[in-house]
Prior knowledge:
The protein contains five helices and eight strands. The protein is α+β, with helices and mostly antiparallel strands and 228 residues long. Helix 4 (193-202) crosses helix 5.
Amino acid sequence: MLEWLYKLLFRSEAEPIELPGPRFDEDVRLKFGVAKQRGLEEALGPMHGVVGHAIIPFEIGGPVDMYYFPNALEGTAFVTQELIDPDGTGPMPSEIGTYELVAFTRHPLSPEMGTGGRQQTDFDRVELRMRSIFTRLANYSRDAVLKPHETCEVPDGDGETPAIVFDEFKPVRGEFRIDGRKHGLLLCIEVFPSELALARKSGSEALLRGLMDAGHYPYSDLNRAPVG
């Protein structure tokens, strides 16, 4: 996926380069994007007007865009919209089918979101971390099946390896559908290394139950005490 970017950065000035084209024409992508957003809003509530757009698009090697849903639960939901393609393919399907990724923070969206010159907030720090995690998982999902109740370690390129436990997120408002076709929402919860060890020793269900009992589920905020 990044081969074209490598060639662009390290080619000689005289060397021509052909950039990859999109898999679907713009009209198809726009119509499908509208239908996908409608399906997400029916499941999670209205989407915030600000979108965390990446400078380099995900489909040609950049990070995912981040979409924010402030009414799904207390706090904010982070959601991808670039995994499921217009033809219904995308991540390798599991028991929840093809899916988009979702994560939660208790931090609300800043009223100044989308304006320049503001100081970085706790929300911003969680958002940047989850964007990095989402991007790696989105790329990985094309070649591997990611399932609810599995765990994963996601190297972030900065020497850290966030630990993730997956679950199926079932919105209370209704199913996530695109033009009537049901898709899944794969919940990504960042957990402590000790909690990852608990999941691998006693099973992810034990960890998820502990997070629920402690009131931490389904949030990825780590300003809390570990469970277990």
